[in-house]
Write a structure and sequence with these properties.
Shape: globular
Strand order of the largest sheet: 13-12-11-14-15-18-19-20-21-10-22
Radius of gyration: 28 Å
CATH architecture of the largest domain: Alpha-Beta Barrel
Number of domains: 5
Membrane topology: Peripheral membrane protein
EC number: 3.1.4.11
Protein name: Phosphoinositide phospholipase C
Largest sheet: 11 strands, mixed
GO biological process, one term: intracellular signal transduction
Cofactor: Ca(2+)
Helix content: 25-40%
Number of strands: 30
CATH superfamily of the largest domain: Phosphatidylinositol (PI) phosphodiesterase
Length: 756
């Protein structure tokens, strides 16, 4: 089983050996909360166990599967706050996937810290290199340990019966006992490691895939190379290089050497292929960077964050540099910095006029400088909301120049006034400032800007937006609009291609606006423009950048649906990255393509200044060709429990949602299956007509049906329709946080045809 393999993995690795012995380290939560804990790697080489030194205290564990990265030194706010007390070489931070808080630790010595840092990184690397089969073995092993209550390495029938309920299986007791007896080869009345794996395989027999296998197998035992070619051509609808592809599949996925020599694939190999990345619904062709990155910046959708510094809500939430690190590590390319005057001449970042905590502007710039290009080399835009005095604006400019150095774009790329925005390719490795600017690029080139001129107040003053959206208090609105703000030349000069301007009308913009000017709208203002002049909005966004952000009354940091803004061609659609839910699922879905680089090329009809695409009337497009998407939802595998009660078992249903232009918005559901989250079988077919497939996202949602209250969320997966593979495909489900729930999946059949 998995533990035997992990034993082989740790032999000769001193760091892992040391972790198995365990060590005492300080767990740090703040300057005042520093407690000693005993940390130890479990024998499965997957679980870290820790407890208080005091006897009788409960212990805690976490799985290395949940760890994203280990940061070395003072690389979190908590560890920076105690930097004067503990040296950097004894400190490290364990960062978890999703939105879970970090674990900050201080080892007794630099050597011990290195041992844990290197050891944990090795375990993360092992996990990343694991195949689907190994991950499944690991998962089976984890369940075995959970169910083996007396830790004797064997499981009697009662333990197995309890385990089935834990695993979401409601199986007839007689049938379960019959399978148990068949698996108990040693006839001891208990299952040991290999016997349990056999039992697991019996209960997870994939009848749905076996049926397909037998349909294409010439002899019912194996798939010849010719059988595989037929399957790829007829079901997966592949039409290029089918013969070499069939050979590759046998080479990579067939576990039997005998079958390989016969140029054939057994059922196990077929199962492994369909469960792999190649057999997934997301096309491997869309995983890397495959789009043209040399078009003007305004021709791309750009992954963007709102109130990036907030970890929670907008009234009392914690402000944190961690918000920037997490957003940038998710491929975000536009982050927001809300700047105010701070003590000792140092500008601070927080949500003004609220009880949110405050962080230093220079710490934010440090974090952005360090993490901007770890995930993507394409440009990052710092969207500055400036409430600072001229003196502190000068300090901001100094920090930006000093900390970011050459990464900060401070002048035009070729030194002369261009006709349009540069491309992501040309701006690789650069950080751009989006903020107010005195004058334009032309004046900057001519050197006609004075030392300190008066500019308008930030358009994004949230007080003004709350008033406009909700309260309509005319006097406050007038007062906000009349106030002026002085801008320092130093900060103004740092703004090159993203000058924040007030939007008047599309007509005014068409005549007067410059390509480097960026207007910002709240979601409600953007919706109004979309409703009144959708085609104009799309046309405007073919020439220059637009930012849309949530209205001020979303104090809970909830998100709007970004799709309607993408339908208008808005590039910088800023969402609260800290808030899980449909909005972030769609954002993650759109930007999961093109190497997750944070830039997705808009469809051609949204980039052409001569086109007049209207998202409300897609059928008027010159090259209009609607399609029919047919999805047969066949089965589900190992869905997670959502109710912690031991005897509760999921009643799953699948909802397929289409997010796109208004005509395409649709959702359909399968029926629910009672008491089976382990291997539910639906075989339900859902059909959708899609008028603008280039803009459509498809979201698969699994819910636990409840006839008396709202269904519980089980898992989801969202992807662009353009990245969907046809044929028989697995969908690997994600949690509410956007992290993989291994090995939970759906099995579907996809067809995309032109509407006749």
């Amino acid at each position: 089983m998995a533990s035997a393999e992990s034993g082989l993995r740790i032999q000769g690795d001193e760091n892992l050996q040391s972790m198995l012995v365990g060590t005492v380290m300080r767990k740090i939560k703040s300057r005042t909360w520093k407690k000693q804990r005993y940390f130890k790697l479990q024998d499965d080489c997957m679980t870290i166990w820790y407890k208080s030194k005091k006897a009788g205290k409960a212990h805690s564990t976490f799985s290395m599967m949940d760890v994203e990265v280990v940061r070395e030194g003072h690389q979190s706010e908590v560890l920076l706050s105690i930097a004067d007390e503990f040296p950097a070489n004894q400190c490290f931070t364990v960062v978890f996937h999703g939105r879970r808080g970090n674990l900050d630790l201080v080892a007794e010595s630099a050597e011990e810290a290195q041992s844990w840092i290197k050891g944990m990184r090795k375990l993360i690397e092992n996990l990343e290199n694991m195949g689907e089969r190994e991950k499944l073995d690991q998962w089976i092993g984890d369940w075995f340990k959970k169910a083996d209550k007396n830790n004797d390495g064997r499981m009697n029938f009662k333990e197995v019966r309890d385990l089935l309920r834990m695993m979401n299986v409601d199986m007839n007791e007689h049938h379960a006992h019959r399978l148990f007896t068949m698996a108990d080869k040693s006839q001891t009345g208990a299952l040991e490691g290999d016997e349990f794996v056999l039992f697991y395989k019996m209960i997870t027999q994939r009848e749905d895939i076996l049926k397909i296998f037998q349909e294409y197998s010439s002899d019912g035992q194996k798939l010849s190379q010719s059988d595989i070619e037929d399957f790829l051509r007829e079901e997966q609808l592949e039409d290029v290089d089918i013969q070499p592809h069939a050979q590759e599949l046998i080479k990579y996925y067939e576990p039997s050497d005998t079958a390989k020599q016969l140029k054939a694939m057994t059922f196990d190999g077929f199962l492994m292929y369909l469960g792999s990345a190649e057999g997934s619904i997301f096309s491997p062709k869309c995983r890397g960077i495959f789009q043209d990155m040399s078009q003007p910046l305004c021709h791309y959708f750009i992954s963007s964050s709102h109130n990036t510094y907030l970890m929670e809500d907008q009234l009392r939430g914690q402000s944190s540099v961690e918000g920037y690190i997490r957003a940038l590590n998710r491929g975000c390319r536009c982050v927001e910095v809300d700047c105010w005057d701070g003590a000792n001449g140092e500008p601070i970042v927080y949500h003004g006029h609220t009880f949110t905590s405050k962080i230093l502007f220079k710490d934010v710039v440090n974090a952005v400088g360090k993490y901007a290009f770890k995930i993507s080399e394409y440009p990052v835009i710092l969207s500055i909301e400036n409430h600072c005095s001229v003196d502190q604006q000068r300090v901001m400019a100094q920090h930006l120049k000093h900390i970011l150095g050459d990464k900060l774009l401070r002048g035009m790329l070729d030194g002369r006034a261009p006709e349009g925005l540069p491309s992501p390719e040309e701006l690789k490795g650069k950080i751009l400032l989006k903020a107010k600017k005195v004058g334009g690029l032309e004046e900057t080139l001519n050197g006609t800007v004075e030392d300190s001129l008066t500019g308008e107040v930030s358009d994004e003053d949230e007080v003004a937006e709350i008033d406009e959206d909700i309260l309509h208090r005319e006097s406050i609105r007038r007062r906000v609009k009349k106030s002026k703000q002085r801008l320092s030349k130093e900060l103004s000069d740092c703004v090159v291609y993203c000058k924040s301007v007030h939007f008047r009308s599309f007509k005014h913009a068409r005549i007067h606006s410059k390509f480097y000017e960026v207007a910002s709208f709240t979601e409600s203002k953007a919706r109004k423009h979309l409703r009144e002049a959708g085609a104009e909005f799309v046309h405007h966004n073919a020439r220059q950048l637009t930012r849309v952000y949530p209205t001020g009354f979303r104090t809970d940091s909830s998100n709007f649906n970004p799709q309607e803004m993408w339908n208008a061609g808005c590039q910088i659609v800023a969402l609260n990255f800290q808030t899980a839910g449909e909005g972030m699922d769609l954002n993650d879905g759109l930007f999961s393509q093109n190497g997750r680089c944070g830039y997705v090329l808009k469809p051609a009809f949204m980039r052409d200044k001569n086109d007049r695409f209207d998202p409300d009337l897609p059928q008027k497009r010159d090259d209009y060709q609607p399609i029919v998407l047919t999805i047969q939802v066949i089965s589900g595998q190992q869905l997670p429990k959502v109710n912690i009660k031991e005897d509760s078992i999921v009643d799953p249903l699948v909802r397929v949602e289409i997010h796109g232009v208004l005509m395409d918005q649709a959702k359909q559901e399968t029926r629910h299956i009672e008491n089976n989250g382990f291997n539910p079988l639906w075989n339900d077919t859902l059909r959708f007509t899609i008028h603008t497939p280039e803009l459509a996202l498809v979201r698969f949602v699994v819910e636990d049906y409840d006839k008396t209250s709202k269904n519980d969320f089980v898992g989801q997966f969202t992807l662009p329709l353009s990245c969907m593979q046809k044929g028989y495909r697995h969908i690997h489900l994600l949690s509410r946080d956007g992290t993989r729930i291994s090995p939970s999946s759906l099995f579907v059949h996809v067809r995309i045809t032109d509407l006749e």
